[in-house]
User: Fold these one by one.
Assistant:
Number 1:
Amino acid sequence: MTESLVPRIQLNDGYSIPQLGFGVFKVDPGETERIVRDALEVGYRHIDTARIYGNEEGVGRAIAESGIPREELFITTKLWNDDQGTQSVFDAFDRSLERLGLEYLDLYLIHWPTPAQDRYVETWKAFERLRESGRVRSIGVSNFLVPHLERLLAETDVVPVVDQIELHPYHQQPATAAFAAEHDIRIEAWGPLGQGKYPLLELPEVADAAEAHGKTPAQVVIRWHLQRGNIVFPKSNRRERMVENFDVFDFELSEAEMGAITELEREGRVSAHPDEVN
Ligand code: NAD
């Protein structure tokens, strides 16, 4: 099992991203170094963190001690809501990069649009300047819905490379996904396993496919994301699950199996609505 099995998704700025990565939301800062070390040993090369997770330093230590050449890694972090603006963005970026111990970042995201603050356009212009500096290669957004994306495209110059949104079988956000596809913005699916908040892995549409392929229900759901073209980074603290979630390149879901899972859509958001996070 090697990282070379992971397909790369082409971004609209010429860079590419490993389609399968490892997320560290709710990974305890004290355990992050060990957990990310495990993930890198298992073969993950794409790590998704955020300033608000409080674990950038642990991610940085695991990267430094791994000895993996920097160009083989893809590291994402996110600007927290309190740091939106202009100078505050530059300062927050510097601090994130320092905590990660990196010379450059692969992808920097605006974590939430926080529409009540009304600063995401200004923030994005600061992101454009960061990108020009070369210290971040690609810039994107997270939790942006169609109206937020429309405004960004109308008022700024650079099209985000990705929109990282809550996306799993009960909540597939078809309007945002379609808008993104039209504008060459890739979708990153957060909470790809529904954060364990509904019995996704027990649904017959998932369990039957798992049985048919001799795989686990989690592997089926990850496979569904990959075949839909989503970028995913499921999270687990447990090494055996990291291995399981990475072992998804030796089978393919049929059109019927894919369709049955896609039909589970029911606007079943498991976390906050982006307009309500400010
Ligand atoms: P997830 O859907 O990946 O669910 C994680 C939970 O699923 C784990 O706690 C674990 O208990 C369970 N799990 C993992 N592998 C399993 C397996 N093989 N079998 C059974 N259960 C398994 O949810 P997530 O961690 O919230 O999302 C993934 C990543 O997305 C995060 O770590 C983070 O990087 C990112 N994220 C971003 C935002 C955002 O606002 N941009 C919000 C939430 C998460």
Note: Residues 8-267 form a domain with the TIM Barrel fold (CATH 3.20.20.100).
Number 2:
Amino acid sequence: MTEILDGKLISQQIQEELFLEIDRIKEQGGKIPHLAAILVGNDGASETYVAAKVKACEKVGFKSTLLRLPETTTEQELLAKVNKLNTNPEIDGYIVQLPLPKHINENKIIEAIAPQKDVDGFHPQNVGRMALNLPTYLPATPYGIIQLLERYAIDTTGKHCVVIGRSHIVGSPMSILMARNAFPGNCTVTLCHSRTANLKEFTQKADILIVALGKPEFITADMVKEGVVIIDVGITRIPSATTKSGFKLAGDVHYDSVAPKASFITPVPGGVGPMTIASLLVNTLKASRKEIYK
Ligand code: NAP
């Protein structure tokens, strides 16, 4: 029997827990967590993602501030905004929505974010702390996957976890988290990417397959074994004749053929996506409580 890993449901549960927590904080006269987001330019997908994050903040009772900057913003101007947020005691954590316009060096901006306020977990200090298994802000998408595995009590110890994709925001941190001495974790991890030879030989041996390459329906039934746990991170807009908008969202896994072989699987949409937002909120609460950096 295949069980759906329902990210939408778990994300709602987490948000309800946060809502109750905010009620408690209000009653006690404590500080309401405050998340800020910087959005540079008018990229459609980025606008949608930021709007969803701001809306989620409002829903659970957090404060949120959206700083919109024009496409023409210089690196210096953006650095100045980042420094302002670093020193603003009102703001607990913030994100700089990626990608940034080509003329801005993303690494330079990420390194300028105060690690204590880096709720996206992208600053090298926080990445290093993650690698060392020290308290840190885990990047939102991998953290969301970890919480999903945890809440469904998926047995990960001693399993062979194959991760496809080595990006800094998903694949690479995911491989670190699944290998660490923790639950979920304690897997034997294989990290695959575009230069991996004979990818299918690895995917067929996976007990847990985490797919983050951005190629719609890339993983097919012949590439997986019976009973595999499938985490599909991919989100790609593909044309559709059956939807009003003319497109639909596709994951990296060919769901209809793979799901019958899987023990657990995340749908797209409604799997990893909603968990990403919930994780950002959890990180913001941690920032406001100074749980990571005391
Ligand atoms: P990315 O930066 O483009 O990285 C893609 C990775 O896949 C790279 O490491 C690349 O290898 C590897 N790859 C590409 N083609 C491959 C192939 N044929 N075989 C094996 N590996 C291959 O992508 P990303 O930012 O990690 O995102 C991946 C997907 O997840 C996208 O669809 C994105 O929209 C989605 N996403 C979803 C969420 C969410 O909240 N659900 C969050 C973030 C991203 P090389 O390193 O060798 O190039």
Note: The longest helix spans residues 7-27.
Number 3:
Amino acid sequence: MYDVIIIGGGPAGLTAGLYTSRARLKTLLIEKAFTGGQVMTTEWVENYPGFEDGISGPELSQKMEKQAKKFGLEITQGSVLDVSLDDKIKKITLEDNTQYETRSIILATGSNPRPLNIEGEDKYRGRGVSYCATCDGAFFKGEKLAVIGGGDSAVEEGLFLTKFAETVYIVHRRDRLRAAKVVQERAFANPKIKFVWNAVPEKISGDDSGVKSIHIKNLLTGEQSSIDVGGVFIYIGYNPNIEFLKSLVDLNKNNYILTDENMSSSSPGIFAAGDVRAKPLKQIATAVGDGATAGVAAEKYIEENF
Ligand code: NAP
């Protein structure tokens, strides 16, 4: 029997684990792939306080994991299939049928890249279509690439891709970026970046060797055209990872978990932290704040209920 089980090992989950372990609660963190979450696939982080010159995403993730483990956080790899309630005790079942019991749960499962759902996207996934510039950028030395989206991820990762690519086309559906101003300024000043405004991709084409072009439509004129590219990096936002929860907690219309200011969900003893939670700002700095709050709230819940 655990006091706390944290599902998800990104900054929110690792911070929650740091707080609950340090509070001497028996805590297990279950992570599907690798700790660090999206930070692990981020080349460089420069807006997380305490690292004046910035820090690589993987290094920041490792530091967070080490710090939480120092206080006794247990980490296991597994994919959660189901969460059920037996009065106040919560049961977690993994895909391999391992079962755990716990007094409280902190959901920190983050979110997954949203697909464009256009022709060719699935066919060329891993052969030119990518959702992770840090993972795949180096395969495209000297090539032309397209990045889809106009948010922080699209523009930051587009900038990163200029390290390898000859030209990076940022294809955005409006004529104004959503990304932070400082990131926009860098992109506008980078001669390798070309913007394709008011345009959406309609199809990705290629051959046996991978992606060859992207077909786009101008939303103002209706004009269709294609750009020759060797890769397409898709950054049009994320979907929360909540499949295993079924209807256990209340969600907003976009399927993000609703919480109060203590990170409590609609189900007593179940908390949510980080990108999986409905909130206006999704950053590492806000994820760790959520994790700390959820950890302390779980501690209080256990004190009052067990
Ligand atoms: P985002 O901010 O939601 O931006 C998604 C972009 O994709 C928007 O420009 C959106 O266009 C476009 N888009 C959405 N659906 C589309 C579709 N079907 N077809 C074409 N374009 C589409 O997502 P994000 O950039 O991944 O960022 C997610 C969160 O993480 C944000 O809160 C962001 O600030 C944060 N983040 C922060 C940093 C950082 O601080 N360094 C880095 C990465 C991410 P519209 O603009 O027209 O809606």
Note: The CA atoms of residues 111 and 240 lie 4 Å apart.
Number 4:
Amino acid sequence: METELLQVESSETSDAQAEALARAAAVLRKGGVVAVPTETVYGLAANALDAPAVEAIFAAKQRPAENPVIVHVADEFMARDCVTEWPATAQALAAAFWPGPLTLVLPKADEIPEIVTAGGATVGVRLPRHPFMQELIRTCRFPLAAPSANLSNHISPTTAAHVQTQLAGRIPLVIDGGAAQVGIESTVIDLTGETIRILRPGMVSAAAIAAVLPEHTVTAGHDEGVLKSPGQLKRHYAPNARLLVMNWVDEADLEQQIAYSRTPHDRVCVLAHTRVVPGTRFGRVSVLPKEPEAYARTLYGELHRCDAEGAELICVEAVPEKPEWNAIADRLSRAGA
Ligand code: TXA
Ligand code: MG
């Protein structure tokens, strides 16, 4: 299958935009899949109300059927149509964070096919911030099921080029809407239980959520033994190379710490944000931003680049143990697991 790429970002005239919208909507209406930009990461979208269309997502990604897919909506009314309950907590969180990187898990409506929810009774819904994605959902007039547009267990794509690397030849259309602004996947929060649970941390932090819901207890993680979100699986979001999260004093110290691995130095990539080493002895040293939002925006791009360059070992400088770094630390620990 040939994969077509359509640009929507830099179109001064809205002709390219209109063309991309029409083409994407046409593929989706026929039950096809399209890779689309969102503010978090690129998604692989299909009509969420059409079970065979959603199956095509799973096939293209080689995704296991037990992993449920997030449903993307264009407004709150559409979100309410996907669920059977819309509690005050959902109302408050939607008002505070939508459109944005927050997915609400609620009891699913009958219209949502089982394949979307992996047979479960709940559905994750999200109103994304990227204008093209919003316009596409409005044009289609149905919600879009969309997991990240990567092969299962690989790093999520934050550019159309990342999507192409993994899915070219497997899907008919990629919409290039520029680099993702947030850069890591949405916060997933379960609103169906007594306590509110963050199933997957993201850039909407637990503290920000707690501030909106002062009457509620917000906890991290799922019930013991119940796999509520495969985003919780230990190894997920992994690059091909081995990844170590570590601290070092200087280049010699770093070199000493990785000596046992016997990785040729030109196959080592270093991702630093405060302890920047000269880089004369390693394949590459990248300097990432010191501020968590900017760091999140660049992280996956750096990991994709390491893979593309054939890195064998990625040394990532440990990030601060502060709440605003929590989601980043989570992704790093999974990538290194
Ligand atoms: O930012 C994002 O969330 C991106 C963009 C495309 O929206 N999507 C994304 O989808 O990351 P995916 O499929 O790669 O990850 C969705 C996560 C998985 O960990 C899945 O298990 C969880 O959300 N999830 C989806 N529906 C759920 C449900 N009903 N209950 C619990 N977890 C759910
Ligand atoms: Mg994913």
Note: DSSP finds eleven helices and 15 strands in the chain.
